[in-house]
TrEMBL record:
Name of the featured protein: Thioredoxin family protein
Pfam families noted in UniProt: Thioredoxin
CDD domains linked to this entry: TRX_family (cd02947)
SUPFAM superfamilies reported for this sequence: Thioredoxin-like (SSF52833)
InterPro entries documented for this protein: Thioredoxin-like_sf (IPR036249), Thioredoxin_domain (IPR013766)
Domain Thioredoxin: 32-113
Length: 119
């Protein structure tokens, strides 16, 4: 995913690869090849655009699922994953390992590129 400019609006980092998430934690099944996990909040305007972008990419790429999680209702998971703002997107591989994470609204091309790290 794209690194933000000097404003720091979009922050990207590699996942540590040691943290694995499953359907029980996420509340939905993982994708066959990769999963886009979006942490959102009710009044987050960029979260709506992020939802559209991730849904479009998941529909375009076979075996990719998009799971949206309400950060306010899942505070324990938010703390465990060190989610500091919404939207935050985690890219998981088929085994549920976090391979990329980004905060701020991603561009479609950046999401597709990040999936390359997961599949």
């Amino acid at each position: 995913m794209h690194q933000g400019g000097p404003t720091g609006r979009r922050q990207v980092r590699d996942g540590d690869g040691s943290r694995r998430l499953g359907a029980a934690e996420l509340g939905a099944e993982l994708g066959e090849r990769a999963t886009l996990v979006q942490f959102s909040s009710a009044f987050c305007q960029p979260c709506r655009a992020t939802r559209r972008t991730l849904s479009e990419v998941a529909a375009m790429v076979d075996g990719v699922a998009h799971i949206e999680i309400d950060a306010e209702s899942r505070l324990e998971l938010v703390r465990a994953l060190d989610i500091a703002r919404t939207p935050t997107v985690l890219v998981l591989d088929a085994a549920g390992r976090v391979v990329r994470r980004a905060s701020g609204p991603p561009r479609r091309a950046d999401v597709i590129a990040a999936l390359g790290d997961a599949v």
